[in-house]
């Protein structure tokens, strides 16, 4: 299996909106120190050369902490920086095409909002699913919400691990207990925090409790 469920417990998705004059690598290291189990680099507006340099730096950092490093959307850049995997949305690229490009050793994550999408992604070679938005979110303006029932149905239907995403924080995470998810993917709950390491310690404990429940 290319993706273990425990890698998804506290899945940190970067967002430079909250850098506040700091360097992204510093924030990511704080997240890793606090217990983040996977890092996804999500960049929409950086020049490719800058993006690649940042990706190489974060890959080295994740290797040091022995945590998987995932690139959002950009298969070419994921290969160039030696990332452990790539995450694609429904509109980005069909999972089977991604597998043909990245080979058998890379992790492929696919976003899904329905049981049908989840099954199609699994059949095409996805290693894990990102399902959401499970709660209202301001991070992704066009995100459609996925009900608890659909989330539960997806987890019961597929054999690959599922990570919940969208509007999740310490105040609502426990509502996902019993759905079958292996963890939570968080953006603002981590990177908008004043003390990222401390926030991650608390969020990691909650995630472990949520999954166990």
What pattern of helices and strands is seen along the backbone?
Answer: EHEHEHEHEHEHEEHH
What is the count of DSSP helices, taking H or I runs of 4+ residues? 8
Shape: globular
Could you give a short account of the major beta sheet?
8 strands, parallel, barrel
Structural class, judged by helices and strands?
alpha/beta
Q: Indicate how many domains the architecture comprises.
A: 1
Ranges where pLDDT stays below 50 over 5 or more residues in a row are none
Query: If classified by CATH, what would the architecture be?
Result: Alpha-Beta Barrel
In the CATH hierarchy, what is the class? Alpha Beta
- Strand percentage lies at 15-25%
What is the CATH topology descriptor? TIM Barrel
- The CATH homologous superfamily is termed Aldolase class I
What value does the average pLDDT take?
Answer: 95
Query: How large is the radius of gyration?
Result: 16 Å
Assign a percent range to the helix content.
25-40%
Question: Summarize this, please?
Answer:
This protein is α/β, with parallel strands linked by helices and about 210 residues long. The chain has eight helices and eight strands.
Secondary structure: elements and pairs:
Layout: E1 10-13, H1 24-33, E2 38-41, H2 48-65, E3 69-72, H3 75-81, E4 85-88, H4 95-102, E5 107-112, H5 115-123, E6 128-131, H6 148-157, E7 162-165, E8 183-186, H7 188-191, H8 196-212
Parallel strand pairs: 1-2, 1-8, 2-3, 3-4, 4-5, 5-6, 6-7, 7-8
Helix pairs in contact: 1-2, 1-8, 2-3
